[in-house]
Design goal:
The chain is an all-alpha fold and about 140 residues long. The chain is about 90% helix and about 0% strand. Helix 1 runs antiparallel to helix 5.
C-alpha cells in the first residue's frame, strides 16, 4: 500500500502546528484571525487524513494476511480515538478570531496540550507504523 499521501498530510499538519507556534509567540491577540484560520485549515487536513486511514489504510491492513501488521493497525486506530476527541474539542473551541482573542491564555494552554499530543502521535506513526506498512507493501 502506498502511504505517500498520508506522509504528505503529516507534513502539512506539522506546518500548521509550526505556524500556530510562530503566531502565538508573536502575539495571540494580534494574530487571532490568522490563528483561527490555521486551526480551521489544519482541521480540514486532519479530517481528510483520518477518513482516508479509516476507509483505506486500516481495512487494507486487516485484509493483508499479516496478523502482526493487522494488530499494529488496530492498535494505532484504537489509540487515535482520545486524540481525535481532544483535537475536535480544540478545533471547535478555537476556530474563530473572537474566541481566540477572548482567551489568549486559554488558547495557548489548549494548543500546547492538544498539539503536543497530535505531534507525538504523528511522530510515532512516522517512526513505528508507516515504515512497517511500507516494508510489508514492498514484500508483496
Amino acid at each position: 500500500m502506498n502511504i505517500d499521501k498520508f506522509e504528505q498530510q503529516h507534513l502539512a499538519i506539522l506546518r500548521h502546528i509550526d505556524n500556530l507556534r510562530r503566531l502565538s509567540r508573536v502575539g495571540v491577540d494580534e494574530n487571532a484571525r490568522a490563528i483561527a484560520g490555521e486551526v480551521v485549515a489544519m482541521s480540514s487536513i486532519i479530517k481528510l487524513h483520518l477518513a482516508a486511514e479509516d476507509r483505506a489504510l486500516y481495512p487494507a491492513l486487516q485484509r493483508s494476511g499479516d496478523a502482526a501488521l493487522a494488530s499494529l493497525g488496530t492498535r494505532f486506530q484504537t489509540g487515535m480515538a482520545p486524540i481525535v476527541e481532544a483535537f475536535t474539542a480544540f478545533a471547535g473551541r478555537w476556530n474563530t478570531e473572537q474566541r481566540v482573542r477572548a482567551d489568549a491564555a486559554g488558547f495557548r494552554a489548549a494548543a500546547n496540550e492538544t498539539l503536543r499530543c497530535l505531534w507525538e502521535r504523528m511522530r510515532d506513526e512516522d517512526r513505528n507504523f508507516y515504515p512497517r506498512v511500507k516494508a510489508a507493501a514492498a514484500t508483496v
